[in-house]
Amino acid sequence: GGEPTAYPGITAHSGGFTIVVGRTARESDELLRTMARGNDTWLHCRDAPGGHVFVRAVSGKTVPLETLLDAGNLAVFYSKARSSGRADVYYPQVKHLRRVRGGPAGRVIPSQEKNLDIRLDQARVDRLLADRLRS
Predict the structure, then answer these.
(1) Cβ 69 vs Cβ 116: under 8 Å
(2) pLDDT in tens, 109-126
(3) Which residue has the higher pLDDT, 63 or 132?
(4) Are 90 and 46 in contact (CB under 8 A)?
(5) Percentage, residues of the chain above pLDDT 90
(6) Do the beta carbons of residue 41 and residue 89 sit within 8 Å?
(7) What span, in angstroms and rounded, lies between the C-alpha atoms of 68 and 40?
(8) Phi, psi of 72 (to 5 degrees)
(9) From the CA atom positions of the chain, what is the Rg in Å?
(10) Which distant-in-sequence residues (6+ apart) come within 8 Å of 58 by Cβ?
(11) Are 21 and 105 contacting, i.e. CB atoms less than 8 angstroms apart?
């Protein structure tokens, strides 16, 4: 663990990858500015305001679907879509995000995004958050 633990938001672990969640616009903006690297994967609900979720890139490894589903569930859980229990989550790499000049904190425009249809799996979320408390 050479990773600093001083990131805002919450950190979870999945399939050898680290997932970092900015729960508020301020946390998300700070993560974008200070932590996010171009090859990290960014996840966000398409039609609901919510947190930014980052999967930290691991050199030479592709993010597995299970890890994307874990991160996608966290994106839905920390968004306004939580109550409806499902959402489209898009997940471009950070290098495909464009900041909105003069826009509110954390506001970005993605390009080349891929889409996940996430149905909120509370057991998955509980496991991720429980693992986080143990790590």
Answers:
(1) yes
(2) 898 889 999 999 999 999
(3) 63
(4) yes
(5) 78
(6) no
(7) 12
(8) -65, -40
(9) 14
(10) 16, 17
(11) no
Q: 3-state SS string over the chain?
A: CCCCCCCCCEEEEECCEEEEEECCHHHHHHHHHHCCCCCCEEEEECCCCECEEEECCCCCCCCCHHHHHHHHHHHHHCEHHHHCCEEEEECCEHHHEEECCCCCCCCEEECCCCEEEEECCHHHHHHHHHHHHHC
Q: Write the CB contacts of 70 (distance below 8 Å, at least 6 apart in sequence).
A: 12, 14, 15, 19, 124, 128
| 21 — pLDDT class (breaks 50, 70, 90) | very high
Smallest Cα–Cα separation from 41: which of 63, 25, 26, 61? Answer: 63
Characterize 48-69 residue by residue with b for buried, 16 or more Cβ atoms within 10 angstroms of its Cβ, and e for exposed: bebbbbbbbbeeeeebeeebbb
